[in-house]
Structure formats: structure tokens, C-alpha cells
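Hello K.,

You asked for the raw outputs rather than the summary table, so here they are, unedited. I folded two proteins back to back in the same session to keep the settings identical. This is the first:
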Amino acid sequence: MNCAVTYEELAAFACGDLDETRQAEIREHIAQCNRCSGRLQALTKADDVLAKLSPARPSVEAILATRRALAEVTRGAQTLEIMTLEDVADFLRISPEELGQLVPELPAFELAGQLRVRRQKLIDWIQQRERDYARSSAQTEVARILADRP
């Protein structure tokens, strides 16, 4: 049988994402078409198995590495060695107000009455914060696991 029902339509049918008219048409077609009936059963089984899986939880390191890679790609070709606080806020993708809370921790220096930050020192500082966060997260997770033990 040459079916006019696409795989995408069967998937939408299985999820109930079609309008009532198309839903009824496909329901009627499935009753007569073994191929589409089998495909629908496979889709339903796959949906059931996927629903039982626990959500993926990427590691902190994977998330941070991905963010660093994206920042490198989206930053553009211009890289400043000496950055103003505005440049730092832009680099970190935070507002100047949010950066104001971090200024005491930044590896900054004063030049001509204004704070400046070396790009490489900022990257080193970020990496240290990532390591500290990963360590803290791991300790929290271990404590949670130990607390859950009978």
C-alpha cells in the first residue's frame, strides 16, 4: 500500500498534536494499513521507553566547557589584552551592575584612575572559579548521597 501518511504525521498523531479532522483520517488509515499501524506501535513504544528515562544531567565541566567554546566563537575576532570594566562585563555576559558585585574579586589593576583587567588573568580567574564550583558541587553531591544512605 502506498501511504500518504508521513512519519512526522504519525509522530504528531501519537502525541495528539493534529487537528481533529486529520487525527480522525489517520486513525481510519491506521485501521487499514499494517505498515502505518506497525510504525505507530514502534513510535508509541519508543515514547514509553523515553518517558521512563531519567533526564540527562551533563557535568558542570561539560556545561562550562560548552559555554567557553560558545563565547570564543561568538566573541568575534577582536580580543583585547587590556579590558575596561565594561569590556569585562560584556565578556562575562553580565550587566555592569552585576559586575559591580565582583569587582573586589577581579584580578584588576588601576591605570589612569580606572580599573583594568588583563584578558588572560580574567580567563585564569574564571577557570579557578570553575574549579572551585566543580569541587563544591562534587562535595555537595557526595554529602547528599551519604545523607540518603540508610
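The second followed immediately with the same parameters:
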Amino acid sequence: MQKHKISAFALSFGLVVASFASIGGSVSAEGGPSPLSGLPGGEGKPVVMVKYGNSRPDRPHYNLNQSDLFYVEEVEWGLTRIAAMFNSKFPSVVGPTRSARISDLELLEQFDTPGLAYSGANDVLLKAIRKSQSISLSPSDRSSFYYRNLSKAAPHNQLLRLSAMMEKETKVGVVKDVGLTFNATPATGGTKTTSFQASWSSARVSGTWTGKTWIVSFDGSLHRDAVNKGFLTPKTVVMQYVERKETKFGDKFGGKTPLLKSVGAGRAIVLRNGQSFDGTWSRPTNTSGTTFLFAGAQIPFDVGQVMIVLVDGGAKKSPVTLK
């Protein structure tokens, strides 16, 4: 069996041996681990970012709990959206898909030719997407794989048949190492933490440690998947403090889109195994991966889904609360 990439910090926990179960269903043990979750089956497979809406009308999400890694991003008016990375498995349906944002393109520069599935964008951002190395997978590009859930109102009802699309897809490149390490042996040396919350002016994400995973709520409501009512249960949660910059982008109502700088360095709080590890992150260039350090060594994530919350590192008061 191919070994996971193990950091010096991970070696103190011991090497992991086992087969792993995906969140919400089994996954084939064939193929090496995903560099985004450590779950088997992702190595050498394509990687696709799916943009989910995350306002109340957008929820419940379809198969978000099947993603390897997902980012929570601030957008206009203090709301959030989700950028979910799929690699080890491609569910039959995902969404509701919403429009892309400038922060997505910087995140995707870690990969070679990743897919970007989204419902649209303003003209300026569409030009930026076309110039980027990402492969646009919007309804304009792959119209036969998108459809509307007529029981909900637009724009909160557009769904994507992801697995069917990826069976036909030839342009999206394979996933690459983006600097993360994984080890399933329980971490030690952190501060006991049983809950977290990150807040913006119009949104919040929170979670509680169950003894095995974190269980996530959005805006105070426990998240249940639209497909099977399963919970959203990342094994590792990261509060990544980033530079928040104003941009020329915005929505048609006058809201301004922030750029959340995932290139650079800053504080990072890694939560796993009911503990928090207050450390740092570093991503020197647009094309390099991100390393997360604690006590001077790279900290491994638990094997399983990862949630990274991008929070304002320049805020006068920290947007993160831990208990």
C-alpha cells in the first residue's frame, strides 16, 4: 500500500495503517491517497472546485459531505460561499452551484489545470477565468450536465451532474500535492477544544466535536445533506487568517467582493481530535502549496474531509471563538 506523505510532526504520532471509509459512503481502496484528504482513490485523478451557495435559500447542499476539502469564503455583504474540492470521488449530483469569485482563482493556482464548476460571474471576472489555467465548467461550457430543481426558486436551484460530466471530461488535469500531510493517529499536544465558531456580519459557521469528527452548522442550523440527510463532518478544521483586500469586483446590488489572499503567510488554528493547535501557514507563491506549522514542525491533518475557513487576519477583533 502506498504510504501517505508524512511530516516530521506526524512521525511523533506513528505511521498509519488501515483502510479508510469516506464520509457518507464507502470509497474504493484502489489507487493512492488524495493529497487533499488522505482518502484512498484520489491520486492521479482530476480535481474540480464546485462553487456552492451558502445563504439560507441555497441550503441544504447536495453531496457537499462527499468533497475531499472545502473552503468557506466571505463574499459580498458579509455572507459566505463554499468552494468544494472533489478528487477521490465525484458524486452524481452537487450544488446548488453559484457564481465564482476572485478568491477562487488564487486558490486554484496551486493546481495545473483544475476544473471550476460554477453558475456564472460578472464580465470582468469571466475574462479573468478565461485567462487563468483553470478549466471553466460552467453551464455555458457544459450545459447538458446542469439542471434546475424546480421545487426551489432561482438562483438557488441549479444542480450539476458531476459524475456524468467527469466521465466525459478530457481537459481537467490531475490533482497535485498542495503541501498537506495526513496521519490518522490521534494528535496530541494541543489545547482541548470542543467547539468553534467563525463569524462575519451576515453569516457564521460553527462546529462541535463529537469524539470522532467535527459536526458543522451554518448560521446556527445543523447542516444535513439534501441527498441522504447526512451531517457535514470534517475530520480536520482550519481557521486560516488571511489578508482581506477590497477589489473592483462586486454584485449588481453594489456589494463589494473581498479578495481573501491565500498566498502569503499568517496565523492558522488547526482543529482535530478535539484539540486546537495554534500555529502558522505559509504559501510563498501562487503556484506553491500551503504548509501548516505548529511548534516549528508541519502538523498533519487527520485522514478524511478537511474544512478550511478563510477569516480576516486584519480584523481588530478575532472572528474566531473556541471553547
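Helices lie at 8-11, 102-108, 123-131, 162-168.

Happy to rerun anything if the numbers look odd on your end.

Regards,
P.
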